[in-house]
Amino acid sequence: MVFVGRLGCLALTVISLSACGGVQDQVSASAASTQLAQFQSRPLALPSLAPNGSCPVTPRLDLPTTGKVIHGMPVPNYGFGEGPVYLSGQLEWYAGQVSIFLIRPAYAGAALTRGHRLDGSGGFPFNSPSGQLAIPPAAQPSQWRMITSSLPNTIAPGCYGVQIDGDDFSEVVVFKVLTGPPPSG
Predict the structure, then answer these.
(1) What tens digit of pLDDT does each residue of 124-174 get?
(2) Lowest CB count within 10 Å: 97, 128, 149, 184, which one?
(3) Residues near 3 by beta carbon (within 8 Å), at least 6 away in sequence
(4) CA–CA separation, 63 and 143 (whole Å)
């Protein structure tokens, strides 16, 4: 799905159980763009780290997704964050790895993910030309949704934080990108 306008161009892979709705989708895209602009106006509230401070990694939660499949892809049964949007896809993070944002069925709205490196210089930790990821509203409410992205191959190891803003929530997820290639297996 692509959002164009004040927020710039952003292409994501959106994996959900949905169908095309023609004109209705255009109206929904316009409303979502307005919502995303509102989310973007919220200040970032990421933690500050002292020099050589430890990375306050967000704890992993078990999610009730065991056995769920979306478009042939198994849904991870864990995530990082308070929800309703969770960072998932990896237990340890390395450059170039796929990342998944899981969205609970109870939340049908749009969301915006922004952030940066917390322990040094570095921008948004996911592949995105605009420096943020837009999560579109649900095409079919009451179902888990997955948005996929990835960490850039050139991301520096370190501590990263993202803020996910939605209609009635703002949550922060902190994770650490490790040095070297991911372990095989």
Answers:
(1) 999 998 899 999 999 888 999 999 999 999 999 999 999 999 999 999 999
(2) 184
(3) 9, 10, 29, 32, 33, 36, 134, 136
(4) 14
The tens digit of pLDDT for each residue in 79-136 reads 999 999 999 999 999 999 999 999 999 999 999 999 999 999 889 999 998 899 999 9
Yes or no: domain 2-47+56-177 corresponds to CATH 2.60.40.1930: yes
Q: Strand 69-70 to strand 73-74: parallel, antiparallel, or no bridges (unpaired)?
A: antiparallel
pLDDT digits (tens, 9 = 90+) for 46-62: 999 987 889 999 999 99
Question: In this structure, which amino acid lies at residue 64?
Answer: P
H or E element, residue 115: strand 111-117
| Listed residue (104, 97, 94, 79) closest to 149, CA to CA | 97
Query: Exposed, middle or buried: residue 172 (CB in 10 Å: 0-12, 13-18, 19+)?
Result: middle
Residue 21 CA to residue 138 CA, distance in Å, equals 12
Distance CA 76, CA 87 (A): 10
Distance CA 165, CA 75 (A): 22
Q: Output the CA torsion 117→167→68→63 (10° steps).
A: 60
Q: Which residue has the tokens 């042939």?
A: 72
